[in-house]
Amino acid sequence: MENSIDAVILTVVPDRWRKVAIVITRVLEKLPSKSEEQIAERITALVATGQLEGSGNLAKWRYSEVRLASKIRRASRKGEGN
User: What b-and-e string marks burial along 37-75, b requiring 16 or more CB atoms within 10 Å of the CB?
Assistant: First the structure.
């Protein structure tokens, strides 16, 4: 279950900062059976594991932001050239 949510989160989070509330909305469009809280929990976990970078208090969805971690941004750019 977590893997499917994580995969969708990682596809909707861009290289640039995006509000957590927007990310949650975009994930809900793809996974309507999940709750906002489940998605927010996974976003926080992805920040904790270094797959996403977070700015602000992630519990305040409208006032915090996330983006892909720099190591993932670099890897995706390398893949674009192939």
Answer: ebbbebbbebbeeebbbbeeebeebeebbbbbbeebeee
